[in-house]
Amino acid sequence: MRDTLVLNASFEPLSTVTLNRAVVLVLQDKAVVEQAHPELRMRGAALDIPVPRVIRLCRYVRVPFRRQAPWSRRGVLVRDRHRCAYCGRRATTVDHVVPRAQGGQDSWLNTVASCAEDNHRKADRTPEQAQMPLLRQPFEPTPADAMLLALGQDDYDALPEWLAQSAA
Ligand SMILES: [Zn+2]
Fold this sequence. Notes:
It comes from Streptomyces populi. This protein is α+β, with helices and mostly antiparallel strands.
C-alpha cells in the first residue's frame, strides 16, 4: 500500500511510497517528515517517530519531463526488488519474456528479474512454451518511481544517469 506522499525538496509532489519506504528515507536522512499522523507513532528498539503522511526529499531532484524511465538491466532488478519472476527467490539476472531470439525487445514490459537457474531453464522460449508462468506482470515505472525504487534501496548505481547526477 502506497500511503505516504513524497515531495521534492521544492515541495512539488513526486510520487507516493509505502510507509516502510518513507520511514527508511527519513531514517537515512534523505527526507524529512512534513506532515505526520496526529496520533500514531512508530516505535522500535531505537526508534520513536510519528507516522509520516507526507515527506520531503532533502535534495532537489530534477525530474525531466519524460513519459518513460530509460530501460536498464539494473533498473529491472531494482523494479522487481531482485525477486525472480518465476520462483520468487533472489534474482541476479534479467530474462526476456519473449526471448530476443524470437524478436523480444529490451523494454520494461518484456523483461523481468530472474534467478540464474530459471533463466537458464527457460532459455529461448516464451513463458507459455516453457510452461513457466510469470508470478507477476512486468510494468513500466515512471521516472519518479525509478528514482524512488533506487533511493529506497540505497542503490544509486541503478538510477538512470540523468537522475543519478541530481540524487547522488
Ligand atoms: Zn527463479
